[in-house]
Structure formats: C-alpha cells, structure tokens
Design a protein that fits this description.
By secondary structure, this protein is of the alpha/beta class. Helix content is about 45%, strand content about 15%. The longest helix has 21 residues. It binds adenosine-5'-diphosphate. The site of adenosine-5'-diphosphate has 14 residues, from helix 13.
C-alpha cells in the first residue's frame, strides 16, 4: 500500500487528534493506516537564526514542521491567502486587496515548501495537498521531478469565471491546478465553476470532469467533507456539560434558545442574522421573552481590516437590538466573542431548539452537521440553513433560506420555533442519516481511493 503524504498549513496533533477536531482525526487515521508524512508550517512567526524544519516520528508517521520566514508570512498568509483568495473565493471581489508583493510571497512560500518536501518523497507516494494556501504546490513539485500521484482538495468554494477573472494571476493558478492528478471540491457548484474556468482560461481538452493539459490528465470531483458523528454525539451528551447548559438556560428566563456558532468572518452572514432576529421580534411580538439568541463568534484574522469592521458592526447591532427589545428579566441576544471548548459547544448545540447557520457563502459549514449530530432524536431542534452553504446540497430537509433576504429569514426563524414535533423528527432523521453517510471518514476514504487510481475513478457528478 502506498504511503500517504499530507500537506496543510497547520499540522494536527497526532498524539491528541481529538483536540483539533474531526479533520485532524480523519487525516491522522488515514496516515496511520498507510504510514506516511504530515507536512506543514511550524507556526512560528518570529525569525530565529537558521531555523530548520522540525521532524518528529510517531509510530509509522512523520510530522515535518517547516518554517516560513517572518518577512514572507504576513504577505503570504494575511496578504494573498486571506486578503485576496479568501474574499474572492467567497464571491466578495469588493473585499479583495490585491498587491503584487502578496502574490510574490505566496509563490515564494510554495517554492520553499516544495523544496522542503521533495527530498522526503518516494515515487509511489500519494501526496494530498490541502486548501487555498497551496494551490501551486503540485506544479512546483512536478518541476522538481516528482512523479508521484498528487491530489488537491479545496475546503472553500470555487468561484465562477467572472469572479475568478478578477485575480490578476488567474491563468497561472488554473494551469498549476491542472498539474494535479485529482482536484477535489466540496460541492457540484464548485466542480461546475472549476470546469467553466478550465474552459475559459486554459487550453486544456475537456471531457466531462476530466481535463488533459500539457500531457497530463486530471480528474475533478466533489468530496463533501463531514464530521466524526459518533465522537460529536458523545460530547453532546456528556453529563457535566449538559448540567452547565441547563444552568445557563435557566438564567436566561426564556423557554427557547436559538444558537449561532461561527468564526467571526464576513462570509458567515452574522449581521443579517442579527437583523433577521430583530425583524422576527417586531413581526411576531408574541415571541418576546419566549426566546433568546446565543451567538458564539471567536475572533479570527483580526489583523485584517474587514475583520475589525465586522466586529464593530456586530457590537453595534447587538447593542441596538438589546436596547430596543430587552426588559428587566430578558436579554434577547447574548453575543460571546470567544472560543469555547468542543464539549461545551456540543452541549450548547444540543440544548438549543434552533440553530442559525446563515452564511452568505461557505465551502461546507461543519456547524450545520454538528448541530444535527448533537440533537436528541426524540426531541430534535430545527436547523435553519443558508442555501449558499455547501452543506445545503446534502441537507435539503433543513429550513433553507436566502441569507440576503432578512424578511424571509425572520419568517423562517418563527417557523422553526413553532415547528411541530413530528415534522422536527422527520426532518432530523433524514438529516442525521445523511450526516452519517457523508462523515469525515467517508470523505477521507473517497479522496484517497480516487487518488490511488484516478484513471478508474467514476466521478459522482452525474450519479448523485
Ligand atoms: P470555518 O472552517 O469557515 O471556520 P466550519 O463551520 O466549516 O467553518 O468549521 C468551524 C469549526 O470550528 C466547527 O467545527 C466549529 O464547531 C468550530 N467552532 C466555531 N466556533 C467556535 C467556538 N466559538 N469555539 C470552539 N469551536 C468553534
């Protein structure tokens, strides 16, 4: 069996994978099965003289933590990755802050990663590169003579050609992506957008989801990522945390709780969600004091202007809404701007009657799946889900909403709060089945199976 070599920005903790969430568990599981390497950044933003890679061997797995020079880190990570690619790939060309030196640093870091990785590779390895930080890495490994199979998985959305064209380097990036044997996406929409970009921006021969460019054949498919359902269910029903949630709920006075859990990111649609909650209280005054809304949003990428702005906006909005509707014994919105432990999060999801997952655009959105897994099947809550989250493709039984339509959202929130138990059970049963079927293990197994034999892979695009 071939070894698996995984490349990602951060390397999970192989000794304690549960701490870093489902993805680290699944990836370390796959590497442990086959033996292999997990290669990524060492997490150090300070320059020390002659820093070299840190290599550690745990059983049949090696972790290699590679340095990034501090002069490159800012323009690579905060610059090109998160001020250019992140907004653009989430259809927010208006937030792109392109600078040539960002792109130069992005290419430099990818070259350094390719140089650092190549001596460790064998011809029969399966190399699996993760996410938008490393799109050109495969092509750079090829330039250095790598003949192994190399696959790429994009965790975020892939935009349509008109948006992708706003990237000055779009053609170089497209041609680099066609150097992978496998290019994996979260959804049909992403695969379709990618194919359209191949047609518009490259000279590749296109045959369905297979592309021939410069003598190499690549296949694109959807590999929707999931969660570790059993592990999350276990956390959600942990006694100590359930007790905490109950106590927290009792302090709220209100009978019902709605919950939102997101990194504080402009793609998550939190301001419109707050507005819709306010609109719901205006339209349905009978809900006053019966429901409170808990939003947990830990800080994220605060060095970038757009993130500081969204933080200010939410503080203003929650203040205004509480100022308008609160009473001596009722706080409508509780907004918590910090991270909470995964056990606590799971218990809070379980004790909330409605989850609001309303991103303007999202690769997948794991919180939607975590909410479903956390529910008591006898008395499950209702998931309100944006049609622009990747998860919506697999979860049509959620209450699907348009996050740009505040009125529609307000009505859907009210409908969720009033949904009869039979309907809640019916919807939840199917959602849970599908969350199990497309869990993080399936995701990892399907990708590795495709990468092992890309020529024989039957793409799922026409069969789902
Ligand atoms: P993204 O990767 O864009 O942040 P996802 O919804 O796909 O969005 O994944 C977010 C992950 O981070 C989920 O597993 C979620 O439970 C976790 N998470 C989000 N907010 C918090 C928080 N406040 N505390 C702890 N974990 C969080």
């Amino acid at each position: 069996m071939s070894r698996l070599v995984v490349v990602s920005n951060r390397v999970g903790d192989l000794r304690n994978p549960a701490q870093t969430g489902g993805l680290a568990v699944a990836v370390s599981e796959a590497i442990k099965d086959r033996g292999g390497i997990w290669f990524g950044w060492d997490g150090n933003t300070e320059d020390e003289a002659d820093r070299s890679a840190t290599i550690e061997t745990i059983g049949n797995v090696q972790t290699i933590l590679h340095p990034i020079a501090s002069v490159d880190y800012q323009p690579f990570y905060l610059g090109f990755a998160n001020s250019v690619l992140w907004p653009l790939f989430h259809y927010r060309a208006d937030l792109v802050r392109y600078q040539q030196d960002y792109y130069d640093a992005y290419m430099r870091v990818n070259e350094q990663f390719a140089d650092g990785l190549i001596p460790h590779l064998r011809g029969d390895d399966l190399v699996w590169v993760h996410d938008y930080h490393f799109m050109p890495l495969g092509a750079m490994l090829r330039e250095r003579g790598c003949g192994a199979k190399i696959g790429f998985f994009l965790h975020i959305p892939f935009p349509p050609p008109d948006i992708f064209a706003a990237l000055p380097n779009h053609q170089t990036i497209m041609e680099a992506l066609l150097q992978y044997d496998v290019i994996g996406f979260q959804t049909f929409t992403d695969v379709t957008n990618f194919r359209r970009c191949v047609e518009e921006f490259t000279q590749a021969e296109v045959n369905g989801e297979r592309f021939r460019f410069n003598g190499r054949v690549s296949v694109a498919d959807r590999f929707p990522i999931g969660i570790d359902v059993e592990a999350f269910q276990k956390m959600a029903s942990s006694k100590a945390e359930a007790l905490f949630s109950e106590k927290f709920r009792r302090n709220l006075v209100a009978d019902k709780q709605m919950i939102g859990v997101d990194r504080l990111d402009y793609s998550k649609g939190i301001p419109a969600r707050f507005q819709a909650f306010s609109q719901m209280l205006t339209r349905y005054p009978e809900l006053s004091k019966t429901v409170s809304f808990l939003q947990i949003a830990p800080p994220s990428r605060e060095d970038i202007g757009a993130y500081a702005e969204i933080r200010d906006e939410l503080e203003r909005l929650s203040g205004t809404i509480n100022g308008t509707f609160a009473d001596f014994d009722w706080t409508p919105i509780r907004y918590i701007h910090r991270s909470v432990s995964r056990d606590r999060l799971a218990a809070l999801l379980r004790t909330s009657q409605v989850a609001l997952v309303t991103p303007m655009r999202d690769g997948m959105n794991l919180v939607a799946k975590e909410y479903v897994a956390a529910q008591d099947p006898e008395d499950p809550g209702v998931l309100v889900l944006s049609r622009f989250a990747g998860a919506a493709e697999e979860m049509p039984e959620a209450l699907l909403i348009n996050p740009f339509d505040v009125d529609e959202m307000a009505d859907a929130f009210n409908q969720a709060l009033n949904m009869p138990i039979e309907e809640r059970r019916e919807r939840h049963e199917i959602l849970l089945q599908r969350t199990r079927a497309f869990d993080v293990h399936t995701w990892q197994e399907r990708f590795v199976a495709c990468l092992s034999d890309p020529g024989a892979w039957q793409t799922s695009i026409k069969t789902y």
